[in-house]
Write a structure and sequence with these properties.
The complex is a heterodimer of chains A (about 270) and B (about 190).
Chain A: H1 4-11, H2 17-29, H3 31-48, H4 74-77, H5 80-99, E1 102-106, E2 109-113, E3 137-138, H6 154-172, H7 174-179, H8 184-265
Antiparallel strand pairs in A: 1-2, 2-3
Chain B: H1 5-13, H2 17-39, H3 42-58, H4 69-88, H5 102-108, H6 115-134, H7 137-148, H8 153-160, H9 164-185
The chains are: A mainly alpha (about 270), B mainly alpha (about 190).
């Protein structure tokens, strides 16, 4: 078996002088290797004819300007809607801080409490007589006032009750109503009732107005106190910043003077 | 006097883009020829050539000069060609027109070459391209690197990560297959 690796090396002229001489001795004796060698030389000559196309290249490596990857900034998600929402939250927060508003929900609906007192609002039925500090507004916007049973005349309630019962009987037995005519006494009683009710309504209105005025005064007072406190804090803050800036400026002046003095000495 | 590859590489590694572009000009044709003969498609070979230089440029800092710069480029090109063949799942194609355009041929004619010789050369070229496309990838690569790029057996062995004797075996087997193939086609100076 002939050494084909040596044949390939001889074909490409990659043998030492001694190896080449040795292989040429082998070729003189081996007809197969001679034929093989001639055929492969012919193939190599054919391979030369295969040339690739000659395109125009002209591409070069160029340095592109550095483009930093866009990182999402606040501008990326900031939309007018988001801005409005943020502004609304800020306004609410500021208003809450100023008015000390507390919002809660319960069996009576949403309750909004304002003011700086720590006592929570209790429903009217739970309020003790004389407690006027707590103020509340129901979710419907009605002002809920503390009502005491002691404020109502017992005799007046009794008279209303009697009159209601008489009316109920008249409704159940219309014949009696047709037959019976109102006596002068009962007419007097009705007129008296209306008068008394008007008086009560007027008193109630006066009382409500007085309490509303009181509450408004308290809210305004609280707001004013808070405003003064905030203003005072802001002034203190500005004072601190001013002192800090003055100290820094003094330090810079000293450094500059030192540098100037040093440079003059040199 | 022209700078050597090593000098241009060193300057390129220092950030000199012009030096790298000189290397591109110097090596773009051999690299394109290697890609074209390996995958057989002009446009794809162009892309591979371009990608070779881009990859070389990006990896230039890591090039320590253990091998010649050209060998390093060849290795990148062959890897890209291998990726292309795997991706396309097909053998390289032998791009050759069916008919021979005599006017086009005449423009390539050398003053001493007759038109008959020119046509014969063109036929052989097409037959070689077809026969090469039929070869197994390892044999084809070994023949291309040896015949068309003049690499030594050792350089080919290093580039293909195989023993020296394997390179010679692949060459012998590849050339033998080509000889038979060209003999069947009845072209060239082969001996059946």
């Amino acid at each position: 078996m002939c050494d084909k690796d040596r044949l390939v090396s001889y074909l490409y002229d990659d043998l030492t002088d001694a190896d080449r001489a040795g292989f040429e001795r082998h070729l003189r004796e081996c007809a197969d290797c001679r034929l093989d060698l001639d055929a492969l030389r012919g193939v190599r000559a054919d391979l030369i004819s295969w040339s690739p196309p000659q395109p125009e290249f002209g591409f070069r490596v160029v340095r592109e300007p550095k483009v930093l990857p866009m990182r999402p900034t606040w501008r990326a998600w900031w939309t007018p809607a988001a801005g409005l929402a943020a502004a609304a939250v800020l306004v609410l927060a500021a208003a809450s801080a100023i008015a000390h508003v507390e919002i809660s929900s319960g069996p009576q609906g949403f309750t909004v409490r304002t003011g700086w007192s720590s006592s929570a609002f209790a429903p009217a039925s739970e309020q003790r007589s004389g407690e006027t500090a707590s103020r509340a507004v129901s979710a419907r916007g009605d002002v809920m006032l503390p009502v005491s049973a002691a404020n109502v005349d017992a005799a007046f309630i009794e008279s209303i009750d009697r009159r209601l019962r008489a009316l109920e009987v008249a409704v159940r037995e219309p014949g009696l109503v047709q037959r019976a005519s109102y006596s002068a006494r009962s007419q007097d009683s009705d007129a008296d009732l209306i008068r008394r009710m008007r008086e009560m309504l007027a008193q109630s209105e006066n009382r409500q107005q007085a309490q509303l005025a009181l509450r408004i005064n308290q809210v305004i007072g609280d707001f004013e106190k808070q405003r003064v406190a905030d203003f005072s804090q802001i002034q203190q803050g500005f004072g601190r910043i001013q002192r800090s800036v003055s100290e820094e400026a003094q330090g810079h002046r000293e450094i500059t003077n030192y540098l100037l003095a040093s440079s003059k000495q040199k | 006097m022209a700078s050597t590859d090593e000098e241009l590489v060193a300057r390129s590694q220092g950030g000199d883009l012009e030096s790298f572009n000189q290397l591109v000009v110097r090596w773009e044709r051999p690299i394109y020829a290697l890609a074209y003969r390996t995958i057989g498609r002009e446009e794809d070979a162009r892309d591979v050539c371009q990608e070779t230089f881009l990859r070389a440029f990006r990896a230039l800092k890591g090039f320590k000069g253990q091998a010649k710069f050209s060998s390093w480029l060849y290795r990148i090109t062959l890897n890209l060609c291998r990726d292309w063949i795997r991706r396309e799942r097909r053998q390289p194609v032998a791009q050759a027109p069916e008919g021979v355009d005599l006017i086009e041929l005449a423009s390539e004619q050398s003053p001493t070459e007759s038109i008959e010789d020119l046509v014969a050369r063109q036929e052989i070229s097409q037959a070689v391209a077809r026969a090469m496309a039929e070869l197994p990838e390892e044999q084809r690569t070994a023949i291309i690197l040896k015949e068309y790029h003049g690499l030594t057996f050792q350089e080919i062995a290093d580039m293909l990560d195989c023993p020296l004797s394997t390179v010679k075996t692949r060459l012998y087997q590849g050339l033998t297959v080509l000889r038979r193939q060209l003999g069947r086609e009845g072209v060239g100076r082969h001996h059946v």
